[in-house]
Every structure is written in C-alpha cells, then in structure tokens.
Design a protein that fits this description.
This protein has 6 helices and 3 strands, in the order ααβααββαα. By secondary structure, the chain is mainly alpha-helical.
Amino acid sequence: MPYEFTDSIPYLLNRVGVRLGERFSSQLLEHDVTLSMYRVLAVLRQRGEKTLSELAELVSVEVSTLSRLVGQLVRRGLVSRVRPVTNGRIVQINLTEKGIHLADRLMPVAAMYEETAVDGLDPETVEALKRTLRHINRNISKL
C-alpha cells in the first residue's frame, strides 16, 4: 500500500487540531487570551500547581517559551510564580483567583467545541478515540 500524505495520521491529526484551534482562538480573543495561554490556564485548573518543566510537558511547549508565556500571565494577574523555600531551583506555577475565574469561564466553551467536533459519534467511539490518541502519544515518546 503506497503512503498517501493526505490520509496519514499526522496529517489528519494536525488538520483537526489546527481547525479546532483556529475556531476556538476566535472565542479566546474576546478575553484577550491566546490558545497557548488557555492551555496553561486549563492544565493548572485541572491538575493544580505545577513546576515549569511539568507544565511544559503537559502543554507541549518548550520551557523557554513557556517561561515567557508564564511571565505574561503573571503580569496579567492570572498565575503566580513561587520558588519553594525547600528548593530554590524550581518555580511553582499556580492560578490566582482571577485565573481560576477565567479558566472556569473558558473551559465550558472548549468543551462545547469538543462536543461539536465529535457530534454524531457514540460515547464508546469517542472514548476509544481518546484511548487510541493516548496510546499513539506514548508510542511517539519512544522515538
């Protein structure tokens, strides 16, 4: 079977991700938030306080890029940056009350986009797709 780029998994995943990202980003503009900023807010809301390196892994951003992004979020009062007394080499990132409020407003909008994307698929298919994507992600980690 010949390789067909436009039917490849990386192409199809990227196409879906980019299209959803573009549409959701238009909603985020109303809140003066980028898609990358939203991802940081959502991960922190869902998973709680994280170090910069943990957060970089979860949002799939390089630490140096994330550090600048976190700086913007700190200046806007959405997250805090703290060096623990017990370990001055790390930085803990957490949501402020303002960040919690914004994440709580935006996460249902993101959920609506996901619901629209999987409309017409039964819940078992959606869960199987998520399991498959997590499996693919673990496989890619081996490369």
